[in-house]
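Good morning C.,

I know you're traveling, so I'll keep this short. The sequence:
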Amino acid sequence: MQENDPLNTKKHWFALYTNPRAEKSLSRLFKKYKIDHYLPLIKERKKWSDRFKIIETPRLKSYIFVNIIFWKDKVTVLQLPGAHHFVFAKGVPAILEDEEMEKLKDLVENYGAQTEVMKNEALQPGKIVKITEGPFTGRQMEIIKRKNEVTLILRFPSIDQAIIAEMNIDKISWEETEN
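The tokens, ready to paste straight into the viewer:
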């Protein structure tokens, strides 16, 4: 382990895989121990035998995102009940960029129940564009354009998941970028 290793010196966002249905209890423990984290929750209407109830459920099942200095805080995080393992890519912990996390927060907060989680392979590649009007103004997003709808795609290759949100084409405009 080197002194100038970015995993040793700076906070980064990491995907933490949790035990099944342990996301919310783990989030409470992170709050208790003052560990910076993000659990994308959406409100869903569920039917009980005698009534309907609105509950918050995780948008990405069995995943919670933590913002830590990896080599310093990983043991603390993994010792909490409900934490299973960090997601690794090519032998190193998968780092999620701050911009990706901001896009995820915006997507879940603004479109919550309208979003859908899919496997990366199930989605065809879209165009990378810069949003000029509407939600996510000024950000680069991947889109797939159909007749009257635009599908915004936020991919997380490290966990092989993508979150999509469909919106009316009138509510958004963009300019194409050169890649």
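Safe travels,
E.
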